[in-house]
Each structure stands twice: as C-alpha cells, then as structure tokens.
Amino acid sequence: MSTILEELVDIGHNPTPGNLTESELRRKPDIFNANRLHLYEIKPKGSEKLAASEATYYIGLFRRAGIRVARGPRGEPGTSGVLPAPAGYYYFNTPRTAVIVYEYRRAPPPPLQQKVEEKQPEKKELTFMERLMITTGITSTAGIIIYLVISEGSRVVFPPRNLLPVP
Question: What whole-number distance in Å separates Cα of residue 6 and Cα of residue 8?
C-alpha cells in the first residue's frame, strides 16, 4: 500500500498514508490500476468470495487513506484471457467486479503431423498480350490493340521513327 500511495502522489493525488497503520501500509493488493483507480484481487477458481472480501478490505484501506478506489469492472482489457503454462494453459476471467479467477487446464497433446510434401505451383507461361500488358501498364485488351495500331502504324506513316529505338 505504501508504494502505491507514493505513486499516487507522483500522478497528482493527495493520499493521507498517516491514516493507516504500519501493518496496513505493508499490505499488497493484487492488481491496482493507478490511472483508473480500479482494484482487482486474483484467486484460483472457486475462491471468488475470498477475492471479493479482500478487494472490499483494500478498497476500505484506500478510502481511509483519502483515495476513492472503485471495484475493477468486468470486461476491462486484460481481465480475461488465456496464458500459456507448462503442459497446458491458464484460463482467467472476471466473474464479478474486482475479482479475477484463474484455472489451470491441461492442454491436449498436439496432433501428430505427417510430413506432407508441398507442391510448388506450376509457373504459367505468359502470353504475348499478357507480357505487353505488364510492359506497357495497359490493362485492357482493347487498349493493347489500340497501342499496337498507333505504335506500329506510326512506323509506316513516319519512316524516320524506325530509326528510334522506342517500342
């Protein structure tokens, strides 16, 4: 509690730690969100009542120290989820305000994976029109035909153009 109260001073609160005994100042709530002034107690599944009573106790200590702390709400980010554990995982959630419970669950063994050779996709040979579309940036067949007529037709109408290495 004393460390949390000191941190609260740093972020602009005015706690009165003198209202708590030395024993109370040494107490350690499980989770305290100093930005939102929310408190949670974490216990194994089945200990919800114990967690709720401890949360009420800590909220009372904070109030005696001049800080209005709320019970952490359900659905707050980070109050439910899954964490990996050896040979399994921990599932945790918030069944009621200020209470987070966890439960270890053994993970089933991973399924046997047979090595499957992946086939490489066959490379498709591009057609003349597809290559022209990529080269010129023109995406329609009509556009490519118009381009060819103008480009090649200009070679007939204007013979000096044949001297230029322009497509």
Answer: 5
